[in-house]
Amino acid sequence: MGTVTLINNETGEKFEFDLIDCKRGPKAIDFSKLFETAGIFSYDPGYGSTAGCKSTVSYINGKEGQLLYKGIPIQEIVEKYNFTDVAKLLITGEAPKDKAESEAFDLELRHRSFLHEGLINIFSAFPDNAHPMANLSSAVAALSTFHFDHKEMEEENDYQTMARRIIAKITTLVAFSYRNAIGAPFIYPDVSRNYVENFLYMLRAYPGGHLKHTLKGEEEITDLEVEAMNKIFVLHADHGQNASTTTVRNVASTGVHPYAAISAGINALWGPAHGGANEKVLVQLNEIGDVKNVNKFIERVKDKSDPFRLMGFGHRVYKSYDPRAKAIKNLKDELNKKGIKMNQRLSEIAEKLEEVALSDDYFIQRGLYPNVDFYSGIILTALKIPVPLFTPIFVIGRMPGWCAQLLEHVKNPQARITRPRQVYIGD
Asked: In the sheet that 28-29 helps form, which strands lie side by side, from edge to edge?
């Protein structure tokens, strides 16, 4: 295991702390007894060098550009598994063993996707044109009143029921939140459609279950769209101790109902510095307007006196190319080839931005590479997803990760309430 010795230069005192060996990544100093042993705190604004938990859910190597779910590289995950397979992997530790098990889990989620009619009524209290994230966080918190028994979970079946229920219902809640915001009637789930197709159906269908048809009579929801949305969800399923996941864990540490903790995570994700960034990328691409303006905006990034910040570039953890961004870009190119056309003007601007940034010393020295948000908005637009739904889409994708992280915390008998210290600098 090993130890680290801390020496107080003022007093000459020495304090020894254990090193925690990790299967992947750097070792960690166990500072859990730092205050009571040495009488001092560690000061780490933003917790960039602090681990608040031990986890087996996902692993990130920012220097090498690696992301693993349960030890499996994201490149393999996105090619091998659909989203409900990944959900099962994260909350149970095991992916479906075969097609039959995969379909059975997907079907279970579909049957759990219906909402209590009393919960549906809550949407009528929300104003028109409210952002779906506001509606969504409120509805998830309200969901705890209809499934209050999840507050006391003791057996594995209790934990799994809680997780599967919210993973199943989140697509319905997102669809209802959006349709309520635009004044459209709700479309109930259709269990004959798989998890992802069912979500698109609830977004697009008309009362009576009808979808728009093309002149050729083809249904609006295509297999290619379902495949693309599957991959987008998979790429967002978990990402270590980011702001929203840490929020879920911190709130859950108080013993609150798990859906209240997840509602808090939704609010954390809403911010433009986190899950709301994909909306901002699209806004900025439109602001740039034309590929000929790219160099002008690149120069603005470099100007210290200009507050302009290039959205979709850089990441708190990754100092090389975000592996999710590579997968998203590949997906964009693949969809283009197969017939789902991206907005050509925005695509050209984005690709030019990336080309310039990847060859510019300013960006290279600072590790400012495209992140997962950079191309996702362009793809979602091509999939006919309205801009206000970009961040709720992120919520659907991240839900299995939040559930897995929450379960990891509440099932740990050594888990404590989160209570950071502060460095007081007042009078």
From this structure: 3-7, 14-20, 28-29
Extract the tokens encoding 171: 């697509």
Domain assignment present for residue 13? The answer is yes
Instruction: Quote the pTM value.
Output: 0.91
> How many CB atoms are located within 10 Å of the residue 95 CB?
20
Does the pLDDT value for residue 215 go beyond 60? no
pLDDT score of 269: 95
**Per-residue confidence (pLDDT) for residue 211, from 0 to 100:** 75
What the block records as the tokens of 328 is 């998203």
What integer is the mean pLDDT of 85-93? 98
Task: Please check whether residues 121 and 246 belong to one and the same domain.
Answer: yes
Question: CA 332, CA 341: separation in Å to the nearest integer?
Answer: 9
Give the catalytic positions in this structure. Answer: 315, 373
Distances (CA, A) of 308 to 6, 297, 302, 303, 311: 42, 8, 9, 8, 9
Euclidean distance between CA atoms 29 and 9, whole angstroms: 20
Q: Tell me the CA distances in angstroms from 412 to 55, 154, 156, 198, one per residue in order.
A: 11, 12, 13, 35
Q: What is the pLDDT at residue 219?
A: 57
Conformation bin of residue 370: beta by default, left when phi > 0, alpha when psi is -120 to 50? beta
**What does the pLDDT average to over 268-295?**
89
Taken as a whole, the chain contains a residue count of 427
* Mean predicted lDDT score pLDDT of the chain: 91
- Domains in the chain: how many in total? 2
Q: Domain for residue 103, yes or no?
A: yes
Give dist(CA 23, CA 119) in Å, integer: 44
Q: Checking DSSP bridges between strand 14-20 and strand 28-29, what pairing results, if any?
A: antiparallel
Give percent of the chain with pLDDT exceeding 70.
98
24 and 105 housed in the same domain = no
Backbone angles phi, psi at 274, to 5 degrees: -130, -115
